[in-house]
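User: I'm writing a tutorial on reading structure tokens. Could you give me a worked example: one chain, its sequence, then its tokens, then a sentence or two explaining what the tokens reveal?
Assistant: Sure. Here is the example chain.
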Amino acid sequence: MNLALLFSSILVLDQATKYLVRNTMAIGQTVPVLGQFLRITYVENSGIAFGLRITHGTAFTVLSALASLFIIVLLFTHKNEKTAFKASLVVILAGAVGNLIDRICYHHVADFIDIGIRNLRWYIFNVADSAVVVGMIILSYLIFVSDLKTGKRPVSA
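And here are its predicted structure tokens:
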């Protein structure tokens, strides 16, 4: 698996979708995709995630950058791990970098994926958020479930 291609694909998809939303929609505008279940709703999130507010945006941006660097270090120090392990880290990194680009360039993140039923809606999110969540689910599975079945240590020290 080409991890650089995986990283680039996620990052390009994230930035391209945010660009399209920023340049074709007004903040707060909603466009139904699958009725009211899936909508594109453009919001700008200056908080951490899921609309949670923060008071020190610069500090959070620096911490996000440090977390991204930590993932890069993990990738280099665990280069002999399973491809799935490295791929999960790359997916998380791509999402983190996608949102970090927004924070640095715009001081907020463009969110637009809006799912729910009637008034029961999830927080509006983006491709980068999805990548971080999917990467964390895969990584958690590999660490806590998959290797427990085989009795192997999930990650070598």
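What the tokens reveal: The helical segments are 3-24, 57-77, 83-106, 127-150. The chain is about 60% helix and 15% strand.
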